[in-house]
Amino acid sequence: MSTTAHAAAPAATTYSAKGGFEVKIGPAEALSSPAEGTPLFKRSLSKQYSGELVGSAIGEMQMAGQPQLGEAAYTALESFVGELQGRKGSFALAHLGLMSGGKQDLRICIVPGSGLGELAGISGELTLRIEAGVHFYELNYRLN
């Protein structure tokens, strides 16, 4: 009987990129929904990223609920093209945002398999914060 020792694959290094972005959100457009059902809407997104992630993104969000009352949800997909800490390429981000009872829960992830160019194999999550109307991001990512 022969045994072969296998070295564990090295863990992918996690990198962090920080900066800011400007976002333009288009007007709400009604989506199809049942006649007496909850209304659904969509809005276009256009972003300009600066800092360690430099480039632009366009996308679309879908919404339901009553955001004016703090009770709503949105999903969105955006496609980014530009440069991440010196690597040129593209990737997509998927958003899930929930608002309820005065609390917000937001998750933004890099879409698996969406990395192109020097960003092929990218994975990770983006967090954002808004201070005095200015948007900031931190992207924690891995490259395989």
Structure notes:
It contains no helices and ten strands. It has 144 residues and is mainly β. The protein has one domain: Beta Barrel (AOC barrel-like), CATH 2.40.350.10. An eight-stranded antiparallel beta barrel has the order 1-3-4-5-6-7-9-10. Strand 2 and strand 3 form a beta hairpin. The chain is elongated and about 50 Å long. The two termini are 35 Å apart. The mean pLDDT is 93.
Write the layout of secondary structure elements.
Layout lengths: L14 E11 L3 E3 L8 E12 L1 E14 L4 E14 L2 E14 L2 E8 L5 E2 L4 E10 L2 E10 L1
Antiparallel strand pairs: 1-3, 1-10, 2-3, 3-4, 4-5, 5-6, 6-7, 6-8, 7-9, 9-10
Overview features:
144 residues; mainly beta; eight-stranded antiparallel β-barrel; 10 strands; 68% strand; elongated
Order of helices and strands: EEEEEEEEEE
Mean pLDDT, nearest integer?
A: 93
In spatial order, strands of the major sheet run: 1-3-4-5-6-7-9-10
Q: What best-fitting shape do the alpha-carbon axes yield?
A: elongated
Question: Beta-sheet strand percentage?
Answer: over 45%
Specify Rg, calculated over alpha carbons: 19 Å
- Going by CATH, what is the homologous superfamily? SO1590-like
- The first-level CATH class is given as Mainly Beta
Bin the helical content.
under 10%
Number of domains: 1
Instruction: Indicate the structural class.
Output: mainly beta
Number of strands: 10
Pick out the low-confidence regions.
Answer: none
End-to-end separation in angstroms reads 35 Å
Largest sheet: 8 strands, antiparallel, barrel
> In CATH terms, what is the fold-level topology?
AOC barrel-like
Number of helices: 0
What's the CATH architecture name? Beta Barrel
